[in-house]
Design the sequence.
């Protein structure tokens, strides 16, 4: 259920230093999120597509991961053009579809697809542990990084715990339905997950103390310098500048 | 319960990020290094709980449980939820980078508010506990939905209909979250009351003293 299908690969993008990728993922997605002009948004979409292609990911999996976004967008296209006030574009029976509603829907579609694709290409190609170590090197507070790696380490354990508990209720003949019994069963299941998690946390903490944990979490990953990181930096800085220029020339 | 990428305007995204950073900073201040393992693993449980689908009529909804996380963690809910959202982003593409702040506020701020409102009522008898825990689960989703609505309204006034739709669509979710939070709290009170805050208030002194006797650690040495 929980997997990282993009973390392993041998494309150019996979080999770039994750610190650079994270920095540019932030910069480019923020620039895209605050843009409104269509030339900018199409440029962002093109760039995101290019990045996904360059990282040579399995396209089917990428599309499957984008399904969450698409399902939200379908809902958006159903609601926004009908509810938004403004100049009427066309009428279907008693319903009126407004031009500003359509424009806004199109903008949101372009933005969300590009931002999520940038995230897939630049962040999820690194693997979670590497992301944590890169964040540590980028100066993110040590506690957050520690928390992040700790949670990542234990989601798989706790997910197994959950599977075990749900097998146990199934074997006892539990069939979920819309009734209080179902909700109570799920509540006890969740409660049990939290109880086991807390017990495990105490064990883990004691084990950490035994091994000399003194409050500092050391990230030993080391990111070697390579000229391709700087080529990537050059390309991405140029793209960032183009994004800004396309957006700002409208007001000139 | 989250807002997708590309919907909100720059100022809303920035204010969300700033507020989330402030909340996380407060939360991190409250986590000693001896609690970090617990917060991390509870954050993982919160992540897993959000994978559980509960039937409601013909459809099903997934649990959110931010009220319960608030009860168990207090201010530490902020960093815990931030981390869980980042994990969700990487695994399921529920969101990217720009909405991380706003989405953290949507879940964590109600969690902290409900913690302060409901935690003092948890050791006042079975009926009050049930009611308080229900209110905690219910309001955590309600406040979250209201924050979603506000974020949309501040972005674009034309989002009024969408915002009302979001809040009203969450009413069944609120009821179910309330029920499940209430049952979970009652369960925890029977099985492991030390997890709940009400227990800690009455017995904090004794356990804190006991802990110091068993493992004398140097809290100052932990800071860098």
Sequence:
């Amino acid at each position: 259920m929980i997997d990282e299908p993009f973390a392993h690969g041998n494309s150019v993008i996979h080999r770039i230093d994750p610190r650079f990728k994270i920095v540019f993922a932030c910069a480019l997605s923020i620039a895209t999120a605050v843009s409104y002009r269509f030339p900018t948004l199409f440029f962002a979409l093109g760039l995101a597509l290019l990045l996904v292609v360059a990282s040579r990911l399995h396209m089917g999996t990428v599309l499957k991961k984008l399904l969450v976004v698409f399902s939200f967008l379908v809902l958006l296209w159903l609601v926004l053009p009908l509810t938004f006030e403004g100049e009427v574009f066309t009428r279907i029976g008693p319903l009126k579809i407004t031009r500003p509603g359509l424009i806004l829907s199109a903008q949101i579609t372009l933005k969300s697809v590009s931002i999520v694709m940038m995230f897939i290409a630049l962040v999820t190609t690194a693997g979670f542990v590497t992301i944590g170590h890169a964040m540590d090197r980028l100066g993110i507070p040590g506690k957050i990084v520690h928390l992040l790696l700790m949670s990542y380490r234990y989601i798989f354990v706790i997910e197994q715990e959950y599977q075990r508990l749900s097998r146990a209720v199934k074997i006892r003949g539990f069939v979920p339905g819309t009734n209080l019994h179902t909700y109570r069963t799920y509540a006890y299941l969740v409660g049990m997950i939290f109880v086991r998690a807390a017990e495990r946390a105490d064990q883990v903490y004691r084990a950490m103390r035994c091994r000399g944990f003194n409050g500092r979490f050391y990230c030993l990953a080391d990111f070697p310098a390579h000229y391709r990181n700087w080529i990537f930096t050059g390309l991405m800085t140029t793209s960032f500048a183009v994004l800004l220029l396309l957006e700002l020339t409208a007001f000139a | 319960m989250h807002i997708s990428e590309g919907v909100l305007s720059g100022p809303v995204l920035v204010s969300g990020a700033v507020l989330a950073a402030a909340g996380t900073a407060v939360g991190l201040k409250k986590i000693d290094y001896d609690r970090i393992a617990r917060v991390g693993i509870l954050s993982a449980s919160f992540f897993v709980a959000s994978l559980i689908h509960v039937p409601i009529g013909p459809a099903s909804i997934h649990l959110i449980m931010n009220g319960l996380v608030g009860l168990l963690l207090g201010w530490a809910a902020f960093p815990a939820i931030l981390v869980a959202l980042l994990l969700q982003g990487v695994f399921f593409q529920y969101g990217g980078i720009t909405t991380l702040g706003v989405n953290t506020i949507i879940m964590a701020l109600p969690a902290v508010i409900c913690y302060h409102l409901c935690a003092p009522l948890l050791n006042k008898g079975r009926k009050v506990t049930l009611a308080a825990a229900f209110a905690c689960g219910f309001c955590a989703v309600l406040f979250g939905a209201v924050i979603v609505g506000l974020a949309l309204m501040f972005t674009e006034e034309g989002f009024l209909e969408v915002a009302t739709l979001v809040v009203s669509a969450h009413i069944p979710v609120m009821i179910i979250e309330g029920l499940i939070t209430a049952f979970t709290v009652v369960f925890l009170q029977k099985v492991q009351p030390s997890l709940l805050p009400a227990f800690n208030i009455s017995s904090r002194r004794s356990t804190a003293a006991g802990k110091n006797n068993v493992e004398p650690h140097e809290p100052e040495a932990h800071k860098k």
